[in-house]
Amino acid sequence: MNQAQQVQKKKETSVMPLATLEADSHAASGFGNIDAQRDLAIPYINILQPNSPQVNKTKAEFIQGATAGQFFNTVTQELSDHILVLPSYYHLKYVEWVPREKGGGLVQVHSAESGILGKTMKEGNKDVLPNGNYVATTAYHYVVVMTGSGPQNAVVSMTSTQLKKSRRWNSLMLSRKIQGAKGMFTPPSYAFMYKLTTVGESNDQGSWFGYNIELDKMVEDTAIYEQAKSFAKAASSGEVEAKPEEPVAPTKDNLTQPQETKDDSKIPF
Known about the structure:
Layout: H1 3-12, H2 18-27, H3 36-39, E1 45-47, E2 71-73, E3 79-80, E4 83-97, E5 106-111, E6 121-123, E7 126-128, E8 134-147, E9 150-159, H4 163-174, E10 178-180, E11 183-185, E12 192-203, E13 206-218, H5 222-237
């Protein structure tokens, strides 16, 4: 094809009308019967640890440039040293797991009112049921995270040593007060943004990275506020629900401090 023919073909190429895309978004979107609860993955914002596959060159999940201590978006695969989030909804759950040495796997998600924790016994830092399964107390923070491509709904989950960070965050949110026409009031959780960074933590079992949470500023963008409000309604109604992720305990070789025991129930994750 000579240059003249290429120019002619380029001229004949039509531009897709925006009106057509808008109409088809309602009539023939192509998404079929996608169900938010069944077919969509809510991104998790995780902290990469020294034993995370994303920082291990021998793993298929390895990401060039990824380092322990960074935040990792499980859907977009984005990495960041800090994130800004708007907390939309909070949900505490007791998640029952089969121990890894017995095959692992999710058994059941118990509500905070279930009383399941009262049936457990402490073994190391784990709450173990009579059937041998363990219960992980897990705090789910549904958030709108600011990304390079715009605000995105996501989940930040905290368990084990990070539960104290979750409680502090909840206290920080509830302590926000605004002067209204009828006096001071506590605004919705999604009225303020928070900056999340990571911090090194350790005990006699090893070292890891945990959350550091700081108040950033009051939300200014109405569209982002409304997105967070809508996400809160969807989460509270059960329309969207975070799928539990089993806590990953690092191995002895991947801890940055020596470990005296092979009992990973004492590892703080």
